[in-house]
Amino acid sequence: xxxxxxxxxxxxxxxxxxxxxxxxxxxxxxxxxxxxxxxxxxxxxxxxxxxxxxxxxxxxxxxxxxxxxxxxxxxxxxxxxxxxxxxxxxxxxxxxxxxxxxxxxxxxxxxxxxxxxxxxxxxxxxxxxxxxxxxxxxxxxxxxxxxxxxxxxxxxxxxxxxxxxxxxxxxxxxxxxxxxxxxxxxxxxxxxxxxxxxxxxxxxxxxxxxxxxxxxxxxxxxxxxxxxxxxxxxxxxxxxxxxxxxxxxxxxxxxxxxxxxxxxxxxxxxxxxxxxxxxxxxxxxxxxxxxxxxxxxxxxxx
Length: 302
Ligand code: GDP
Prior knowledge:
By secondary structure, the protein is α/β, with parallel strands linked by helices. The protein is about 55% helix and about 10% strand. An eight-stranded mixed sheet has the order 3-2-4-1-5-6-7-8, sandwiched between helices. Helix 4 crosses helix 5. It is elongated, with a radius of gyration of 21 Å. Guanosine-5'-diphosphate binds next to helix 7. The site of guanosine-5'-diphosphate has 19 residues, from helix 7. Involved in targeting and insertion of nascent membrane proteins into the cytoplasmic membrane. Acts as a receptor for the complex formed by the signal recognition particle (SRP) and the ribosome-nascent chain (RNC).
């Protein structure tokens, strides 16, 4: 919980004061109250559609429960935000194979924090007692392979790699076999994130997907799309692009520590109907947290 509070401090600073002020200053729930709340939420990048939906739901509650004092509405707002964010306990957790090898495919645009996230995730899984292997599936950039090696060393896990320019699907094929041979618990596959040629990239990702599925029929257990929370609505565009084309099952939102607009998590959750599985709250190896909608909202409001 503290990690959440610390990591979300920018959003908190920008948001909580305003909300507190609104709920204590206003003495009744009128149009001016709703308008101000709307403004605050939009300012935090919660997204216009979500804000309108939320305000509508609050109006219904106010009528139904005959609420007059804004203070009484505050816990209901928190409750509604948690509701909007959560896809239920189950979907927020990373899926794993019932037994045998679990495979995660990690996709996203260059620079969003994909490599860092893979390193952090490897570290987390190792701390949970799992054995982990990484696959350097971004063969487009030499630097990507090197970066993954660096994170592999930090986390103390091996990286299966080939040279720059080699077929990414072949690297993944090798990695799946190595993972099986070594009896590894979790294989995490990096992929390319160049956007100059979207069609080509989507085809590449689909080929990787098919190779994995052919080797392990129920895999990949998750296709995680990494998004940079500081890019706001841009992140939403990327979510739409990848979500439609690559069978994404969950989102990882990075750099939440670097934005005052953490409400983007709520917007993306709503627009994409994809669960947020994890959030990045810093650059260090232990700055990746499993997402918990209740903790998230509490970190913002309490
Ligand atoms: P990739 O191109 O998607 O693989 O991106 P990288 O993993 O290389 O990360 C790009 C930059 O974002 C690096 O400077 C990372 O340290 C930084 N970064 C990644 N995740 C986070 C995060 O959660 N918080 C902060 N503040 N920086 C992050």
